[in-house]
Amino acid sequence: MSHRHAHPPHAPAPLPRTVVLVGLMGAGKSAVGRRLAARLGLPFVDADTEIEAAAGCSIEEIFQRDGETAFRQGERRIIARLLGERPVHVLATGGGAFMDAETRLVVRSHAVSVWLRADLEMLLHRTARRSNRPLLKQGDPREILQRLIDLRYPVYAEADIIVDSDERPPEQTAERVVAALETHFGIALTPRVPAAAHAGERL
């Protein structure tokens, strides 16, 4: 669903702005983002992957070595660079990125934001399959995720578009994002170029 109402889509057109996916860990930003990018014939970029490439180490190592504050500063710079330098693409961001006021301003200026909203049980199910979640190693995952929901969901709600990420396959969620983008921009979306395989993407 979209916060804004637009006229029904008219002639097919390319996506006019980069799509920035926001949401908690486990919301499906990478899985949905890859499929959304392929559907629109656009590059997919994972901000976490870009941060790791710039730092030369994993996000978990950055947290351990430099702390969360330093990580957030680097994250802010990387996202601003990606949105300022790259042509239209699909960008998946880390769970805390949209909480930064400066990052939200940059996203608002250069992109359209989509919150992939998932409930606590879905997030628990998905994050249990991954061990590289630094914030979840600080205590009980259920309590930590609930605390993050309480803190972050009111801010995520500032996103331009909200799409629920549930038990349905990521392909279906990606199609719902496409429909929401079409309503938001008032256009029918067509791929810019044939979708290509994207190297280096994380599952």
Automatic annotation (TrEMBL):
Pathway: Metabolic intermediate biosynthesis; chorismate biosynthesis; chorismate from D-erythrose 4-phosphate and phosphoenolpyruvate: step 5/7. InterPro entries: P-loop_NTPase, Shikimate/glucono_kinase, Shikimate_kinase/TSH1, Shikimate_kinase_CS. Its EC number is 2.7.1.71. It is found in: Cytoplasm. The keyword Metal-binding applies. GO terms for molecular function: shikimate kinase activity. Coiled coil: none annotated. It comes from the Bacteria. Keywords: Amino-acid biosynthesis, Aromatic amino acid biosynthesis, ATP-binding, Cytoplasm, Kinase, Magnesium, Metal-binding, Nucleotide-binding, Transferase. CDD domains: SK. It catalyses: shikimate + ATP = 3-phosphoshikimate + ADP + H(+). Binds 1 Mg(2+) ion per subunit. SUPFAM superfamilies: P-loop containing nucleoside triphosphate hydrolases. Substrate binds at D48, R72, G95, R152. ATP binds at G26, A27, G28, K29, S30, A31, R133, R168. Mg(2+) binds at S30. Its main location: cytoplasm. Its cofactor is Mg(2+). Monomer. PANTHER family: SHIKIMATE KINASE, SHIKIMATE KINASE 1, CHLOROPLASTIC. NCBIfam families: PRK13946.1. Belongs to the shikimate kinase family. Catalyzes the specific phosphorylation of the 3-hydroxyl group of shikimic acid using ATP as a cosubstrate. This is Shikimate kinase. It comes from Azospirillum oleiclasticum.
